[in-house]
Structure formats: C-alpha cells, structure tokens
Amino acid sequence: MRAGGVRLSVAAGSVTGNRYPANFDVLHVDPARPLVVVADGMGGGRGSAVAGRTAVDSFVATAVPDAAGLYAAVAEVQSRVRAAGAGLGELTGCTLTAFVAGERTPGAWLVQLGDSRAYRFRDGLLELLTTDHTVAWLGAVHGWWPADSAEAHAARYRLTRYAGHPGSPEPDVLSVTVRPGDTYLLCTDGLSEQVGYERMAGVLGAAGDPARAVETLLTDSLTAGGEDNATAAVIRAGTGGDDNA
What we know:
This protein has about 240 residues and is α+β, with helices and mostly antiparallel strands. It has helices spanning about 45-60, 65-85, 135-140, 150-155, 190, 195-205, 210-225; strands at about 1-5, 5-15, 25-30, 35-40, 95-100, 110-115, 115-120, 125-130, 170-175, 185, 230-240. The longest helix is centred in the N-terminal third of the chain and has 19 residues, at about 65-85.
C-alpha cells in the first residue's frame, strides 16, 4: 500500500500469553488502504471481547484520513461500544490506536484512545508518539510517586480515556509525516510493558522484513513472561517502487 508517494510494507500479529485463557486484543490491517488498528479489551470477560471487536469494526467502517473524519469515527465508536455493552452488566471498554493515511495525500494520522501505543523509529531514534491515557502516566509526568512503586503499578490499570467510557472522551488525533526509511509500531501494553526500549529500538532499527520484527517482538513478550495478550503491527516506509522496503 502507499501513503502519498511512499510505499508501506505492513506486518502484524498477536499472541495470547499466559495470563488470560483467550486473546482480548483485536487487530486489523486493511488490505485495500493504509489503515492499521489495534485495540485492547479491558479485563478478561465478555465485555472486553465485545468492546474490542465493536470498536475496531466501527472504526474501520467509518474512518477517513482527515482530522474531522477521525474525530467523528471515534464518536461513533463510543456510541456503538456503549450500546453493545448496555445489556451485558459488566465493564465493556477497550483501547484504540490507529494509523490512517490517504493513498495520494502526504503523511498520516495517528488516533489514540487509552494505553496502547504508537512508536516511530527514524534516523536511529525510537520515539513514543502517543500518550497513555492512564493515571499512571499522569503520576509519572507530575512526580506523584516513584515509577517502580506499588501506587504507580496500580495506576496503570486506571484508564482516563477509553472506548466505551460513559463520558465519551475524544481521542488524540496526531498528524505525522511518513518518510522513506521510517518504521512505525502500533502495539498493545502487553508488548510495551514487557519489551524494553533498547530492545524495541534494536529490533525496529534492523533492516529486513517487517514480519520478522513482529515475530521477534512477540516472542520477546512471551520470553519476558507472557503476562498479557500482546499485539504488534510494524509499518515500514520505503521509496515508491521499492518492493523490499
């Protein structure tokens, strides 16, 4: 697929890990347009599964590559997830992180709701482009407690924004450039919490098939203990005619 004049090669995968009996992450890589979505259900119940599937299906059906359209798409996601959970009698919510681009327009959009993440590796530097919508993130930024404290650990599970939230919070919508040589990573916290920064940078900075990077990162999450479902999507940008990007 292409975003503007840049060819994108995409690979993605997911593993269940050892904590849950099923995988409550949801992954979508669109075969016809530059659109990648990851979602992470909250908890291990039916509401988690329903929220993730509803959110991703709704976003894929309504998302268009401009800011107004993406805000509208997430508003529809919020409405549909809340409606789907109305009769379940349990928490029905999930994260949503997406990469959306137009085939003929330069750059791309990142959509962020919750604590799944989007990273970019460019010119030797791995950057986290999204913000975690959690109390733990607020605590880290404002120095409320040490990062390795029990309070910080508990706050990781307190999301301030998510799909299905009764207040229908809006997402962060970020405009990003896409240059030949860039590598983007979308992942759930089952990956980012278990694979360290240096290791992630090394894997994403290595040349080669993005499928190899996905396989390596997911294997690393299992080696680290498989404490959660883990999902990764790697998007590599090459020149317009480079089929090996």
